Amino acid sequence: MIVYIARRIFTAVFMLLAIAFVTISLFFGASKDPARAMCGKPCPPETRAKVSAYMQTDQSVVWQYTEFVKGLFVGRTYGEGAQQVHCHAPCFGYSFPNRSDVTTLIAERLPVTLSLALGAAVLCLVVGIGLGALSAIRKGGAVDRFSTGFAMFGLSVPTFLVGLLVVQVFGFMLNALPYSGFVSFSESPTDWAWHLIGPWMVLSFILAAGYIRVTRTQLLNELSADHLVAMTARGASTRQVNRHAVRGVMVPVVAMFALDVTALLGGSVIAERVFSLHGLGDLLLSGVNESDLSIVVGVTLFSAFLIIVGNLIADLLMPLLDPRIRRA
């Protein structure tokens, strides 16, 4: 077990370092120099070279990667003298257009994305597992047909279309839900939930479709397994059989849930844009629009970090949920 955990942790750290190198190579090595946007127009070559040196974008990709990894642990300093700017650890870069380090910008936007992600994840888990389990237990019935149609529709419709429909119907036509804005949980828990019902509906509708299909398929396989058929033959009740079958469904569901939550925490760009929420997805879009590579790289690597950590947690939970994995 200890060897399994050590191997998973080593793989996660290696993946993080590899993703950081690839991301920095793509954005800083292949993209245009962000000093052009900061220099303004007209921008003589001498001025542009000074701006590029100040922003440290004139260095090689290997140097950029080394400084980025070092900055995560000890911080990073830009410029010299009176113009010196220091980014405290963990430093994901410095946004010169916003005059702030990327870590601070991420911390300011994270509560919005965290509220959006956790609420949508819990809602989609309840709806997805509930409908998937009922669909498998009552195979061929009305609930099964409804759940299957719901899942197919959810997997087929784009997120932005569902979001626009929710805004149009519940926001403008019925005036039943707010269609923009965010209220902090500490300020008013009721208004916090009220303003997030729309985004939660959209994301949970899209994500629940996958949980319905996985839960239904896995539960049907478990119910037809030899040991559960033997339990039924020995006179076990339907509730006992279903309870044992649900345990076998938890492994793929936990893996999906870990990836979905961490992906949502990385920023749901479409939902945040539709509902005018200023989360990590909105921050990433603003970095792209402003050609701010520090924000793009910082948010991308922060999202990758969350996804890999979530996947690592799911891997470590697998042996606890399924004894067969622990024995292997």
TrEMBL record:
The membrane topology of this protein is: Multi-pass membrane protein
Query: Known Pfam families for this protein?
Result: BPD_transp_1, BPD_transp_1_N
Q: Which UniProt keywords apply?
A: Cell membrane, Membrane, Transmembrane, Transmembrane helix, Transport
Its transmembrane ranges are: 9-28, 114-137, 149-172, 192-212, 249-275, 295-318
Q: Per the record's keyword annotation, is Cell inner membrane included, yes or no?
A: no
Biological process terms from the Gene Ontology for this record are:
transmembrane transport
Keyword Manganese recorded: no
The UniProt entry, under InterPro entries, shows:
BPD_transp_1_N (IPR045621), MetI-like (IPR000515), MetI-like_sf (IPR035906)
A GO cellular component annotated for this chain's UniProt record is: plasma membrane
Main location per the UniProt record: membrane
Which family does the UniProt entry place this protein in? Belongs to the binding-protein-dependent transport system permease family.
**What PANTHER family has UniProt attached to this entry?**
INNER MEMBRANE ABC TRANSPORTER (PTHR30465), OLIGOPEPTIDE TRANSPORT SYSTEM PERMEASE PROTEIN APPB (PTHR30465:SF0)
For this entry, the protein name equals Peptide ABC transporter permease
